[in-house]
Amino acid sequence: MDGVSRIDEAGLARLVDAFYARVRADAALGPIFNQAIDDWPEHLDKLAAFWSSVMLTSGRYKGQPVPAHVKHKDRINPALFDRWLGLWKQTTEELMEPEAAGALQAKAARIAESLQLAMFFRLDRAAPASASMEHAHHG
After folding, report:
1. Using one digit for the tens of pLDDT, what is the confidence trace for 68-85?
2. Which residue from 104, 105, 82 is spatially nearest to 11, judged by alpha carbons?
3. Contact at 8 Å (CB) between 11 and 96?
4. Residue 76 in contact with residue 29, Cβ under 8 Å?
């Protein structure tokens, strides 16, 4: 991807800081992130390392993004992913060159898709709530 050559560590750190400032101020996303995260400076360092590893293959991120999100899945729904991606699109377009913004948006969309599969896929295949309720009455 041509856009990746226009991305560096400092730019990613600025992007992550600006983006998560918007997330924290967002009416829908803010309460979830602010309750989930105790130490924002430490978390922003971790997020910058994540994006550095993803975009620059730096290997700086050592964490596990899927379990980190799955443990909050009772508070998260697909519409929130769309909201997150919308803010990401807006922030990358403001702060990064167009090719870099496009590369970051494409990568975020793929990551969001894999996180949603991990979080919701099994739920979607489960019986609807009404069916399990009826089942409970017969038990």
Report:
1. 899 998 999 999 999 999
2. 104
3. yes
4. no
Percentage of the chain beyond pLDDT 90 is: 73
H-helix or E-strand containing 125? helix 98-125
CA angle 58, 64, 32 (to 5 degrees): 115
* Phi and psi torsions of 126, nearest 5°: -70, 160
User: What local confidence, expressed as pLDDT, does residue 110 receive?
Assistant: 96
Q: Are 93 and 42 in contact (CB under 8 A)?
A: no
- 3-class DSSP string for the chain: CHHHHHCCHHHHHHHHHHHHHHHHHCCCHHHHHHHHCCCHHHHHHHHHHHHHHHHHCCCCCCCCHHHHHHCCHHHCCHHHHHHHHHHHHHHHHHHCCHHHHHHHHHHHHHHHHHHHHHHHHHHHHCCCHHHHHHHHHHC
What letter represents residue 60's amino acid?
A: R
The encoded tokens of residue 51 equal 């994006």
Q: How far apart are CA 46 and CA 39, in angstroms?
A: 11
Cβ contacts of residue 68 below 8 Å, gap of 6+? none
